[in-house]
Amino acid sequence: MPTGTEHIVTAYSDELTGLAQLIAEMGGQVEVAIENGTKALLKLDRELADLTIIADQRIDDMQRRIDDMAVSMIARRQPMASDLRAIITAIHVASDLERVGDMAKQLARRSLKLEGMNLQPTFYNGVKNMTALVLRQIKEALDAYSNRDSARAIEVCNRDDEVDAMHTSLFRELLTYMMEDPRNITPCTHLLFCAKNLERIGDHATNIAERAYYLQTGKQLTSEVQELQRTQIKA
Amino acid sequence: MDMVAGKVKMTQQSVKSAMNPTDMLERPIRLTARDVTVHYGAKQALHGISIDIPDRAVTSFIGPSGCGKSTFLRCINRMNDTIEGAKVGGTIKLDGEDIYDPSLDVVELRARIGMVFQKPNPFPKSIYENVAYGPRIHGLARNKTDMDEIVVSSLRKAGLFEEVKDRLNEPGTGLSGGQQQRLCIARAIAVGPEVILMDEPCSALDPIATAIIEELIDELRENYTIVIVTHSMQQAARVSQKTAFFHLGNLIEEGVTEDIFTNPVNKQTQDYIMGRIG
Fold first, then answer.
1. CB contact under 8 A, A81 and B234
2. Which residues of chain A does B256 touch, with a Cβ-Cβ cutoff of 8 Å?
3. Does A5 contact B261 at a Cβ distance shorter than 8 Å?
4. What is the pTM of this model?
5. Which residues of A touch B263 (CB under 8 A)?
6. DSSP H or E stretch at residue B254
7. Whole-angstrom distance, CA of residue A167 vs CA of residue B244
8. Percentage with pLDDT > 90 across chain A
9. What is the CATH number of domain B30-273?
10. How many helices (H) and strands (E) does chain A have?
11. What is the pLDDT of residues B203-245, one digit of tens each?
12. Looking at residues B187-203, what average pLDDT do you find?
């Protein structure tokens, strides 16, 4: 975590660094979980699915550890200004990451249900593309957070429209397959839920980016700011 | 279920009042200071302080030892006049009136702008006399009944009456530290001030006595303009609506308390309130 100047009490600095490291570690595990969850889904890999489901417990544990650390620091250090924002933001980001972990777990679970069904490779294309996009969103949001990069945070928020658009188009596509052949209804419904999960992951990436913006600027990223940014980009 | 909902609602309301609405910047200005300088002999202690103090709100001055916050506070009721070699420049106005106007009666001014000090300093007199002393020399009571009323209402406003009502004739010095400090607040209130200055009023008190004083400050701000110097940033964050940060005789940053403690603009302010090495 870039701090500029050090605290007079070095143990306090160490704790803040520890908290930032824990968030980074949790972020890394969540990224792996999304990758593995979708891979399990696309390849119907039972082993990887089980692995992803078990790994989610570790992500949940990390969230609890982050919460405990944050509460303890608030109680003992009475953080102020950007230190206070760092701690409050850590609580929020950990909570968002925990939810993303759950989504990844659900993707993995869904793959177990799809086993033995008639799945055509074309069904998967949209899910594959959407996964790539939300993974990028999560990565960028976490980078914006750890580098305290508000400009990048705004980019992530603005790009969420792409995720939503992709979700809508995937919804239509899967609907078409269902109408073509009623036997596609069950697998495509499962995939619809997967698409919804990915769309939710995108929302959590936006949340994390908003926290990153707040962490750096001390201001909430409102839609007006985003709008302003959009017009600036267009101009 | 309804009870739960009711409870939640109540909590939210109490939080709202405790958070102090940030509309304080729209409050009328009571005191204005412009380019205030103080020299102690050859040494300059304040380098041109300009600040507006809002009416009926708590303004806190924070900063490291020797930053000039107490010096500036003492300028507001001309306490520096009593220090030999101290020279004050610039202007300080109370309701537009220059408090350094030579024709102004300083005793009168100090009745309008009261002060409470770091160490409780009751007179070696009875509790009653401690409060009655000021109104008597200012001729605020026509008779004993008037005086009784002033004493009781001042003690009440200072949140002390219930604790001392049966021993008003006992010496004020026999009270606990926190009670003595509230007695000093009652003494300041008794002469009907508009502004109350407090110089680290809780630094000699335990946390419970401190909390009682802080609660009192929160009540008093309904009727008085309060300026408090404190070493405790947490205290400034808890009791004040406006905060000013001093460093090496300069006013570095001032603003709504919430902003100063969550998102200060100046690097020096940030380092100070976050406990970093600047």
1. no
2. none
3. no
4. 0.80
5. 81-82, 85, 217-219
6. strand B250-256
7. 51
8. 74
9. 3.40.50.300
10. 7, 0
11. 888 899 899 999 999 999 999 999 999 999 999 999 999 999 9
12. 94
Rounded mean pLDDT of B158-186?
94
Cβ contact, residue pair A219, B276, below 8 Å? no
- Tokens linked to A230: 């959009």
- DSSP-assigned letters across all residues of B9-31: HHHHHHHHHHT--GGGGGSPEEE
User: Is A83 in contact with B274 (Cβ distance < 8 A)?
Assistant: yes
The yes-or-no verdict on residue B101 having pLDDT over 80 is yes
Angle, alpha carbons A169-A172-A177 (nearest 5°)? 130
Rounded Cα gap, residues B239 and B58, in angstroms: 7
pLDDT band at A11 (very low <50, low <70, confident <90, very high): confident
Residue B226: φ, ψ to 5°: -115, 135
Q: Which of A9, A80, A217 sits opposite B261 (nearest CB)?
A: A80
Of B237, B263, B276, the CB nearest to A7: B276
Share of chain B above pLDDT 70, in %: 91
CB-CB under 8 Å, A6 with B274 = no
Structure letter (DSSP) for residue A7: B
**pLDDT recorded at residue A159:** 94
* C-alpha triplet B182, B186, B187: angle, nearest 5°: 115
Check residue B8 and give its pLDDT.
38
Amino acid at A196: K
Contact B273 A81 (CB under 8 A): yes
CA of B269 vs chain A CAs: smallest distance (Å): 10
Confidence of residue B16 (pLDDT cuts 50, 70, 90): very low
May I ask the CATH class of domain A10-234?
Answer: mainly alpha
| Stretch B97-116: mean pLDDT | 93
Q: Do B234 and A84 touch (CB under 8 A)?
A: no
Chain A nearest-CA residue for B232 = A78
**What are B57-99's pLDDT values in tens digits?**
999 999 999 999 999 999 999 998 888 889 999 999 999 999 9
What are the tokens at A121? 């490779």
pLDDT at B15 (0 to 100): 35
First to last CA, chain B: 52
Pairwise CB contact (< 8 Å): B262 & A8: no
In angstroms, rounded to a whole number, what is the distance separating the alpha carbons of residues A23 and A87?
11
Q: Considering CB atoms only, which of B233, B264, B277 is closest to A5?
A: B277
The alpha-carbon gap from A125 to the nearest alpha carbon of chain B, in Å, equals: 46
Identify all chain A residues contacting B261, using CB atoms and an 8 Å cutoff: 80-81, 84
Cβ distance A85 to B262 less than 8 Å, yes or no, reads yes
Phi and psi of A184, rounded to 5°? -80, -10
